[in-house]
Amino acid sequence: MEQKENPKAETGKASASGQAETETTSVSAVTGSVNTYMLEVTDFSKKYRNNERYSARHVNFTVSAGEVVGLVGSNGAGKSTIIKSVIGVLPFAEGAIKVDGYDIAKQSEQAKRLIGYVPDDHSVYEKLTGREYINYIGSLYGATKQQKQYVTGELAKRFEIAHALDTQIAGYSHGMRQKICILGSITHRPKLWILDEPMVGLDHQTMALLCEYIRSYADSEHSVLFSSHNLEVVKKTCDKVVFIKQGEVANIVDFTEETDFDLSGYYTTLNEVKEDA
Asked: Of 39 and 12, which is predicted with more confidence?
């Protein structure tokens, strides 16, 4: 059985009808106090050197414990810039990003240990075998022996890659490399799992399996943020979607509140609007 790593507290909140609702919140690893968000992006802006235009500007959104949030936008909208800043790869000078209360700019080491990341290029160490890669990444993040064995055992079988774990990654297909990258990213059971375009190149069966696992991972009190162009996957998997256009948040839609939201229609309309000159 998988262990829950993020303790939760419940607080009463009055609803519009006057009845008490239950809001699930995490206990901050920093202060021990109740913290509603596992990820909090506040007024974040990023401009690359020698570029007058912002790649991300005044971005605000949150990811709660137990929530799956999708980042949706056209190519070049700023999704990868946001994700790479969240994981601490890109430095920034404007705004704040906190992971379970840790500031990614000021408390980078503590914040990064809570994150699992799948990059959009699915880069891995080709000279290692799949098993060696999983164990290596797990050790970097302090994964236990039991956690590593779970990934190389039950989870590898679930993702149909167990047969190739002792083969050098250099001989893997694109889809197999993607699978081993995904497994390596969750070996330490991160509180915040971030995936950048994880569905690209996967066959339909593996895509469905990953969607199912993302959902179950969040349901076990973890948080997930992923970017995707696959609107069907987003609608099926996410609790909330953050639409990015020209580096800014164009809209945030909570599917738990707007169950009939026309995601495809809205996305088409959003991208039909002319970009500023």
From this structure: 39
Q: Are 263 and 242 in contact (CB under 8 A)?
A: no
Q: How far is residue 166's CA from residue 252's CA, in Å, rounded to a whole number?
A: 43
Task: For 186-242, write each residue's pLDDT tens digit.
Answer: 999 999 999 999 988 789 999 999 999 999 999 999 999 999 988 999 999 999 999
Among 129, 83, 91, smallest CA distance to 247 is for 83
| DSSP assignment letter at 225 | E
Cα→Cα distances 115→102, 154, 184, 186, 189, Å = 11, 22, 12, 9, 9
Output the six-digit token pair for 97: 């990003």
pTM of the entire structure? 0.84
CB distance 77 to 242 below 8 Å: no
Collapsing DSSP to helix, strand or coil, 150 comes out as helix
Q: Which two tokens stand for residue 35?
A: 């913290």
Of 191, 175, 203, the closest CA to residue 4 belongs to 191
